[in-house]
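Batch 3, record 17
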Amino acid sequence: MVELISLCLCLCRAEDSAMENIVTEKKAEESHRQDSADLLVFILLLTLTILTIWLFKHRRCRFLHETGLAMIYGLLVGVVLRYAIHVPSDMNNVTLSCNVNASPATLLVNVSGKFYEYTLKGEISGSEINDIQDNEMLRKVTFDPEVFFNILLPPIIFHAGYSLKRRHFFRNLGSILAYAFVGTVVSCFIIGLFMYGCVLLMKQIGHLGGDFFFTDCLFFGAIVSATDPVTVLAIFNELQVDADLYALLFGESVLNDAVALVLSSSIVAYQPEGDNTHTFEAMAMLKSFGIFLGVFSGSFALGGATGVVTALISFNFTKLRELPLLETALFFLMSWSTFLLAEACGFTGVVAVLFCGMTQAHYTFNNLSPESQDRTKQLFELLNFLAENFIFSYMGLTLFTFHNHVFNPIFIVGAFLAVFLGRAANIYPLSFLLNLSRRNKITSNFQHMMMFAGLRGAMTFALSIRDTATYARQMMFSTTLLVVFFTVWICGGGTTQMLSCQKIRVGVDTDLENFQSCLMMDFLCVRLQIGPDGVERSSTKQESAWLFRIWYNFDHNYLKPILTHSGPPLTATLPACCGPLARCLTSPQAYENEGQLKDSDSDLILNDGDISLTYGDITVSTDATGAHTSGTPVGGVAVNSDEALDRELAFSDHELVIRGTRLVLPMDDSEHPLPLDSRRHWHKNETMS
Amino acid sequence: MVELISLCLCLCRAEDSAMENIVTEKKAEESHRQDSADLLVFILLLTLTILTIWLFKHRRCRFLHETGLAMIYGLLVGVVLRYAIHVPSDMNNVTLSCNVNASPATLLVNVSGKFYEYTLKGEISGSEINDIQDNEMLRKVTFDPEVFFNILLPPIIFHAGYSLKRRHFFRNLGSILAYAFVGTVVSCFIIGLFMYGCVLLMKQIGHLGGDFFFTDCLFFGAIVSATDPVTVLAIFNELQVDADLYALLFGESVLNDAVALVLSSSIVAYQPEGDNTHTFEAMAMLKSFGIFLGVFSGSFALGGATGVVTALISFNFTKLRELPLLETALFFLMSWSTFLLAEACGFTGVVAVLFCGMTQAHYTFNNLSPESQDRTKQLFELLNFLAENFIFSYMGLTLFTFHNHVFNPIFIVGAFLAVFLGRAANIYPLSFLLNLSRRNKITSNFQHMMMFAGLRGAMTFALSIRDTATYARQMMFSTTLLVVFFTVWICGGGTTQMLSCQKIRVGVDTDLENFQSCLMMDFLCVRLQIGPDGVERSSTKQESAWLFRIWYNFDHNYLKPILTHSGPPLTATLPACCGPLARCLTSPQAYENEGQLKDSDSDLILNDGDISLTYGDITVSTDATGAHTSGTPVGGVAVNSDEALDRELAFSDHELVIRGTRLVLPMDDSEHPLPLDSRRHWHKNETMS
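Prediction for the assembled complex:
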């Protein structure tokens, strides 16, 4: 495919080559200065946002979150740039025409005997050409949309995965997956269909200024189905809202970003053969579906794999713990390489980074030194904070600086209705179905809250600005901006009111609450089990997710010991025939840990093995510094098979009766006295979850 | 200056516009994948470097520092890219020619009716055009040189300023400034003159393939005069080498980076009028000198100003301390905006960032919450580490991937000689002159060590790769690479040997040592002072730098109270007439601190006020956690005027005799027992300096 075409037309000799050189250099310098000044505007905008956020936090204002604030500042700067500043049009664009078939990535231009290299920036529509000549300033503050996908989104998504409250996430995994996958697809199609109705109406009354196909409607459905966790969850965190509601909302919004991203690219990839490219065709549809599955599972596998590799490295290079700087740098680089690797393989980097973050938090985090744990958390927290506020202020800015807005009243009203309907079609039917099998039901006030909390944010914006070439995409972009503004300001600002209106409890100390409720349940279980037949107990057991139990056991018995220094030694969990292999894979630390199986992560699951452990370790003492020492289990090594579990439970229950369980722990930092009627005091174990 | 030129030559109708669109998209996607893969190579290179560094640190290998290692890995990858991988030339470059006078920044190309936007990347020389067509792969891994100045150098330089050991730096300020300013200029001219001799010789024997002017030689002198602190100082840190030697080397190499950068741009700016642009002209020379002064002082002032603004913000928004994330983000953004502001104003961002870092460390750091202090230090440590290793591995890579190397044996040998001579002409004469006025002389073994430790690193490389358009610049670049390789591997690797060869003490606990020696000196001072006339004492006093004493007093009495929460309240230091102003500017904390004037920074200077304080605070107890409590000074508030000092010293000496100074402190972490013959035990005060 060598297309080396030389179009040497006229070679003008330069009269004064030196002079010209200086002029070119001056121009390059000026352009660099201008770039610096533009970036400075954004930095100062962020600085201003931070100072105002501080003021808000100080005054405990909850009606406007930092992201909403960043948008307002962005809007203001946008207005100033648009209307107040008029830069004289310093137009140096040259329009060239040539008879090549495609636009090359690199262009060499022979100007007066000197060769200059140009790189392709993108296609511009005819209308844009005038705009370009209109206001150079506005174009300058416009970023390449790919910046969002390659620089700003990855830290946000990684941070979401890394900071997932895994215990509650895994407890609600089934529901979260249902909302994220089924819910997002349902929402996408509902919105797509509704919008197609709107488009047909607009076509009828002649309000449509260009093409708008059904695939465009579906694409719109996909991009506005991505909900943003930022604003609502910040308030939830502050108010300490119920952990299950938090987990459901957070898990859903993190995963549906990934689903919406892959879904939208699958819709774009829908390319039926033949003349009319916008008809329905089963094969193309299947292909799109295949792409969705392939890209999603590929990104998932890749993200998980890199996480596992990092865990293995940090597991084997244990001495690295002495050098937190190297450890942190390694962690950062490996996480970044996940993104790049996924992009290089044609998968979706953002999705890979999400699963990488989750794997890192689950395995690698346990291998890091305490200092590196802090450092990595703080680093990604900072990156997330900066990227997020940058995106939201840029969002405000684009409302005025973007030149090809298409605001169509019918489409906008339709979009708001569709977004509402799509969210309702996601939450209510799915909640009903999920409640059929859930032990702790998703109550109707939780459902209303989830409905209300479906804000649209960074991902929706990034997806809609990615391609604004056609009329349909421009209309989508303008409408999306309004949807984001509305949801962030109105829904985000009304979260506190909505919470009190729905009578959802706030100020819940989740760790304590959980420990306590789980204990009560276990206690009940144990009571039931010592009945004559044990039938009740097993029925209780079957209510919990069997699929998840299998995974948890596998993870706890095999993956954790291989990838981290916690968990039981493999020699104890693998069958006897695999003895040599197990010995080879087990680290010396695992044997040391054998007595203290309750690693920071084991409270992820609060049934089965942990019950036995909780009852097995009769004396657990936690000192003030967080280092916890536990007595060896009375029943020996806990093997998580059901028979062992039964024996274990019976044994420990016996113990319970004989010795009278006394778990007295220092109560230095628990502010909520337990309303337990027993005389025991439980102390929450501060863990990263 | 509207130069809108439309050269519409031929508008070819696209046969299949949709098909073509897909092709373009595919191509863009492929290019993105390629970019990701290239970046991935670098990331993996860094990961490999980190793992090997760990191995080296673990085995205590000191003959090769991480930067040297990064270069070796870079070299290996360069060899592989150059010789092992042969990508079939997928050439899509199109050469266009047009009769415009200058190359525009943006180019619109009309390809088959569609407009594509191209941005200027830079000029390419004729020889490069063939290279471009040679190997796309090699071009892909080549970064825009401006990346170094805008992304990689700023964190390195900022970190250098931020981590300066200020106490020892300020104690040796005069010498450091002499080495950095006078020394660098001397070295630049010596090297320039020597190289001009080489060039003349080469011209005589016909070894020169292009133009090479005297300004080019001076430019070469400027860029290779920038010494790099990284490698040597890492070893110094590990071995705990004498603090004064450390301060001299570190201070010099940090400041001479800034001097060399501004100097080289001043040399480039030397543009005599008239026909021959390479003759000597006094006016142009003066202009260059003016540019040097203007840019340097401008950057200095700007960097300092931003630092002060950040200090003021963090001073006034004290409640920000509750939110370390916001505090850290603010700190990061303000430091970055210094760089952008300087660039936007036409100053040198890197230099501004250096002084900003120093100001931040001096003032803002004291206002930050302890958590933010850790966070900012760790953040910049990480950024510095990544940027540095990236630059050094890229250096290794370019030896093979850069296509226009000009290796000229005479020039190379000449350059090595010139570098040696230049360094010698910097160190030895200056040390001799400085020793005339210094109290603690720079001994000859220190001088040899400084001579040996003049490694060339990141700044030299970045300056030489910035412009490789002409023959002279290409030859400089190739030679510079070799100089960097040689100094980093040979001089860097031989540091330990050189230290033991020069019999320079290692394993010195600098804080302890200092405290002790200062104490001995003060003791002497006090003894002398109680002689009948006090003449000896005042002569001792005059030996210390008077200029610096003035600055220190001003800083301690006025700047520190205004910008930080430490230091004495302004009401105590300002004259009585300024009472209202002082009260308005003094924070409530300052009054609280009044009794404990010994802030983390006051041991910066170990004479005057501190002596009185040391003797005034008879009982200083430091507990193991680092929080130190001190008794109120016996002599009341210490005002740093000379009369008060005298009174104070006399008083405390009296106290000394009467009460018998007993300073018994816990000795938990000092491994070096004091060889003091008195019965006192001193405990070093761990401070960030």
